[in-house]
Amino acid sequence: MGSNLAVAGQSDPPDRNAQSAQDDGAGDGPDVVVIGTAGLRWEDLTALATPNLWELAERGAAANLVARSVRSFSCPADGWLAVSSGRRAADQPMEDYGTCRRLLSPDSEGSVPAWEGFLEAAAVDGYDARPGLLGDVLTDAEISALAVGPGAAVGLAGRNGVVAGDYLFADSEPAVLQSSLTSHLPGHDLAMVDVGAVRDHNRPLVHPVPEDETATEEPDPEETPAPEPDEAWLLTSPERSEQVARLDERVGAVVEAVRAVSPNATILLASVADSGSVAAMQLALADGPEVLGELPDEGGALLESRSTRQPGMIQSTDLTPTILRMLDVDAPPGLVGAPALASPDQGTARERVDDLADEQRHAAAVRPLRGPFTSVLVLVNLLLYAAVIVGLNRRFLDRTAAWLDRRRSAAAARTAAALRSRRPGAPLRTVRAVAVGVGSLPVASYLANLLPWWQADNPALVHLGAVAMITIGIASIALTRPWRSQLLTPVAVVAGLTAAVLAVDVVTGARLQVSALLGIQPEVGGRFYGFNNSSFSLFAASLILVATCLADPLVRRGHRKRAAALVLALGAVAVVLVGHPSIGADFGGPPALIPGMLILALLVAGVRLTWQRILLVLAATGVLAASFSLLDWLRPPEDRTHLGRFVETVLDGGLWPIVIRKVEQNLANLFGSVLTLMAIGGIIVVLLLLARPLREAARSSRAGAYGWLTGERTPGVARLAAMLRPALISLGVTFVIGFAANDSGIVLPAIAISIAVPLLVAVLTGWLLGRSRAAQLPAGSGPERADGDEPGDGLSDDGGASADAPSEDSPSGGVAQAR
To answer: Which residues contact 382 (CB under 8 A, 6 or more apart)?
Structure first.
């Protein structure tokens, strides 16, 4: 299909082929009209200032559109390239970060300027984008298309960079634009119109000069089209409201022309890029039979797609399959998006617009808080680790007391006397409470989204207060009087609540995770349903700890098979939640969680781990994990998630670019994230936790840096270490594999450490607290109060085990049952 050009507002008719198409059409207008813009958000709409957009919002289907491209923000060229390729794509980066190319109209042959640069950028970006795919598909399907404006030319260009259809120069004046469209729309099946962009102040669209350009004379206007009038106007940086008002007038002109020529046409309006260098969700609207179809005539609707599974949210990569579905053209393999569909919404237009604007406000409010929260999470964990490693070290305390003695002050003397105290009850209780609180912090960051904190005048302060209060509440429940003397109950409460909140949220659509501090960030465009990497990490770590706590009493009573069956049942449910295409659809989760839970079950059952059994576990993991992708691949293409598309990519030979991209992202996170510090610190604590305090205590000696915490009577220490070992091995297996299988890399073990290590510290300090009390009681005495502790706070001498617990050997490193 060739490209034919016409100039809006000129008296010369289009060339013969375009005129023939109009004559053959005889008033038969397009079935689908795509109106593209950039920088337009729902907060820009009002009934008075934007009447044309508001009318579409009243009767059509609405959504926030995630316009994320290859980089952290999207330029107009990026958005139109996403339409062209059906994948994330981007222009070549500009010299000044934050600036975007000003698109120019095609030449007389229909060739899009800078097309070779678009192809080069796609080749090195690693997202396997193929600019020109949409144009080639339309050509093969013999769809007559009309591109209006430079952005539309990019969207409808074929692989060769030539517009796959007719091209019409756009005019910024609404009346001229409407008149021109009315005369040129007939005879086309599809029309794509670029109505311009809304730009932030100091973020104009610029036209880069090629490095090899040395000519000094003015270009020939007959060979080089002049900049579009609306683009030149944008360079003056008027107020945003003025830009939006002018844009609304052009949208109204397009809609009027379409309704005059083809009353039953379906209109899809999408803002495909950001207005500046800060990413934000954009506006998307659709009106017409191909979208609203069988929905009730009254009321509005929300757009959603299988790529997001969030009502009122689609991606720019969904536009290409949506356009093809509207035209009844089969989508080619390799598209990452899914057709946008409408679901009824009973709210008014005002409520719908307010809700969509509120979602963007929520996403924007949480963005500046994520970095500080991550830093705080790392800091409190490192301080906790320091308190355990250094603050409970007897040698360090004695040296600090000696240094304070030299200060010769009353306050220093009192502090030195406290540090020399051999009664560790107070510091141990403090460390345990802080550890439980630190372990409660991640789930509290999700639960804070139950409150509309982003609507406050000071959202950051309100959000901080909400997270802090929820954290204190969870820790208080976990350490409340009825069960605080039980060693594992605080762990079960915190980990159980974390796993339950995330599981329920995933089953109900992952709404709590959207725009959470550790949850789904919609502006990033990575994942919109199921578990994101941070959420999966918390869920998997919590699940392993909960399974350990539930299996513990069964193992103590000698019911190892029942305990192993319980672990397997929990693991099976969790794997389905994580990996099933209709729920979590997580590719990297099952390969990490399955071996972790299988090994935990084997250790709880008292089975010795051999190389043969480890290989069998890995083989079972491979089969089970691959089954989710294969089952998804067997479904119709339009119903597949990224799991099935991954199989398709492998069959097409596209595995290697994916592997390279994931390895690069993994290494970037490993060496460029503050979470690496938390991961290293947590691993050190775990090693010291098991290697030094327990080893010294097991020697029944008060010597050593940590022996003072346990006293001289230490039976039951080996039992506690054995109980922790299966959980630690399971956690290690899960997150070593998770680190290798996911592009987030160090994020997975680091986030897991943020809940697992504090709760393990709480177990250790709780046990040490009970041992120190027991050491202070005379032989044969009961659980009287000691060291100012409350009754019932202590543990039995055997670490909480039943007095009639049977003895079992556990050569695999499972739970030893020595009396």
So the answer is: 677, 678, 681
